[in-house]
Amino acid sequence: MTAPFAGDWTTGRPALAFQHCRACGARWLFARSFCPQCGGADVEMREASGLGTVHAVTLVTRAPSEALRPHAPYLLVLVDADEGFRVMAHAAPDVAIGDRVAASFRPFGSGLVPYFACVE
User: Fold this and answer.
1) Residues 6 or more apart in contact with residue 25 via CB below 8 angstroms
2) Are residues 19 and 78 in the same domain?
3) pLDDT above 70: percentage of residues in the chain
4) pLDDT by residue (tens digit) across 7-35?
5) What integer pLDDT is reported at residue 1 of this predicted model?
6) How many domains, the chain?
7) Does residue 23 sit in the same domain as residue 36?
8) Do 19 and 73 fall within a single domain?
9) Cα 5–9–37 angle (5° rounding)?
10) What does the radius of gyration of the chain's CA atoms come to, in whole angstroms?
């Protein structure tokens, strides 16, 4: 039996969560009431370790809104989490494709976002 889900960064808690299908084992972001792989309804939320490998990077130099302009430039990454799903997040400026990274959580605009940095 798994512990009740306590929320993640989308609810203001500094944690990264994903869903897992008990029928086929698929794992994904973001929450939905069914498995996108097999269509099953026996899904559960799990908390991720926050560790992964960088799949892609992009530097945002032009913020999408006036409120985010003070943050530019900033790095966005796609991270393949150790648990088997991919997440887009912010990252330290020195992060590159193939790097092992760990998540922390930082304020950005009016919310909290995952922020990845290299691990030794």
Assistant:
1) none
2) no
3) 95
4) 788 888 898 999 999 999 999 988 889 99
5) 39
6) 2
7) yes
8) no
9) 65
10) 15
Report, as an integer, the average pLDDT of 109-116: 87
6 residue type, one letter:
A
> Are 42 and 95 within one domain?
no
Residue that is written with structure tokens 């997440």 in the block: 87
Q: Which amino acid is at 33?
A: S
Query: Same domain for 36 and 81?
Result: no
Q: How confident is the model at residue 49 (pLDDT cuts 50, 70, 90)?
A: very high
Asked if the bond preceding 30 is cis, omega within 30° of 0, the reply is yes
pLDDT at 6: 67
d(CA 113, CA 46) in angstroms, rounded, equals 18
Cα(53)–Cα(10) distance, rounded to whole angstroms? 22
- Which residue range(s) make up the domain with 26? 9-47
Q: Do 30 and 88 share a domain, yes or no? A: no
